[in-house]
Specification:
By secondary structure, the protein is an alpha+beta fold. It has helices at 25-41, 68-85, 109-117, 119-122, 128-138; strands spanning 9-15, 45-51, 55-61, 100-104. Strands 2-3-1-4 form a four-stranded antiparallel sheet, with helices on both faces.
Length: 170
């Protein structure tokens, strides 16, 4: 649209199905590049991305001509197909249903980019579930904790704790 000027920055967060640790370190960079390609082909601006073993953070400069849920759906579907066609995991890879989306002003971008890049450090102090719930509370988003990303276990310690790299099942 002519004469339309926008500044829309959105952090998108989504999890691997059942919050399994399936994104292996040796595949992380390739997956991030693949997702970046999906975003740029949609005419969007990717500002930061970090794929953790069980979830992903993406910071976008969103063009209003694209519906956010359609874009996230394309990212998740495209990356799922790529992972499965490349046989990066035993069995079938999938992302969980849904996602979180959090908006920021231009003045907050440097901090948000640093936050996304420093995910390993953040998860040394708190789990992904704790982090996600903190975001929902910070942005005052109504939610029911029973439906926050289907859990496979009770998280007892941060990833650098005694159960690093494994699911703790009860």
């Amino acid at each position: 649209m002519a004469n339309t000027y926008t500044q829309i920055y959105i952090q998108v967060v989504f999890a691997v199905q059942a919050r399994q640790n399936l994104i292996r370190p040796e595949r992380k960079e390739a997956l991030q590049k693949y997702m970046t390609g999906i975003v740029t082909r949609q005419g969007q601006k990717l500002l930061a991305i970090n794929c953790m073993p069980d979830h992903t953070h993406i910071l976008l400069g969103l063009n209003p001509s694209v519906v956010l849920s359609d874009l996230v759906g394309d990212i998740k579907t495209g990356s799922t197909n790529h992972i499965n066609e490349s046989h990066w995991v035993a069995g079938r890879f999938a992302w969980q249903e849904g996602f979180g989306a959090f908006s920021y002003s231009h003045s907050q971008l440097t901090n948000v980019i640093s936050y996304i890049r420093d995910q390993v450090k953040h998860h040394g102090r708190r789990t992904f579930r704790q982090e996600y719930l903190e975001l929902l509370k910070k942005f005052e988003i109504d939610h029911d904790e029973r439906y926050i990303f289907e859990p496979v276990c009770e998280e007892q310690a941060p990833p650098n704790g005694p159960h690093a790299g494994s699911d703790v099942r009860r």
